[in-house]
Amino acid sequence: MPSLIVVVFALQAIIHIVNSVGAAAINEMLWALYSKFPTLTSKAAQEQIRLRREVVRLKRELGGVSAQDDFARWAKLRRQNDKAMADYEKHASSLTQTKATFDYRVGILRMFITTIPRWALQFWFARTAIYWVPKGWIPGYAEWLLSFPTAPRGSVSIHVWALACASVVSLIGEAVTAAIAIGLGSKAQGAEVEPEPAKAKKDL
């Protein structure tokens, strides 16, 4: 069984990644992945794309036909466009409801992966010492703070350890983000700078 110290740190890292990426972005990525599977939802999404292209095509053709010069063709295209638009809106409404249900279920799954395990660990191991602080290293009031709320005096509680892990993970995340931004900025700046053409040497 992995150490409780490692489990809490890993859980805080997962929570930080989820919060940094964002729930909406994660939902969109999972929805795009789910739509690639051979399911009814995938077929509905493909049908919606086909209908959207059909609507665009009919609108383009309808815009190129004059109702005064060729009323019969214009009326036929108009009926086809109205039917395609109605079908598209029907499929879009159904797909929107399906995606809303999908987002709701993903939100519940995300809560079971992050929030509930954190609460469960803090409740179950509330009286457990994550690790012990050597006696005499810190003042008595600091020992009480580190063991807050119900861990043995002189130890670090799971609540305090979780807060410490969250702070460290946040600092690491900011450092990594800054390093990536600096690296991309340097790369872009280097690409903009063009080397000067070499000057031809004069013959002596």
Task: Give the SSE map.
Layout lengths: L3 H18 L1 H13 L4 H24 L7 H43 L1 H10 L6 E2 L7 H7 L8 E2 L1 H35 L12
Antiparallel strand pairs: 1-2
Helix pairs in contact: 1-5, 1-7, 2-4, 3-4
GO cellular component, one term: endoplasmic reticulum membrane
GO biological process, one term: tail-anchored membrane protein insertion into ER membrane
Family: Belongs to the WRB/GET1 family.
What does this structure look like?
With 204 residues, the protein is mostly helical. The chain has a domain at 22-114. 74% of the residues lie in helices and 2% in strands. It is built from seven helices and two strands. It has a two-stranded antiparallel ribbon. Helix 2 (23-35) crosses helix 4 (71-113). It is elongated, with a radius of gyration of 30 Å.
Strands of the widest sheet, in order across it, are 1-2
The amount of beta strand, in percent, is: under 5%
Give the uncertain stretches in residue-range form.
200-204
**Cα radius of gyration in angstroms:** 30 Å
Helix proportion: over 70%
Family: Belongs to the WRB/GET1 family.
Subcellular location: Endoplasmic reticulum membrane
Signal peptide: 1-20
Lumenal side: 1-4
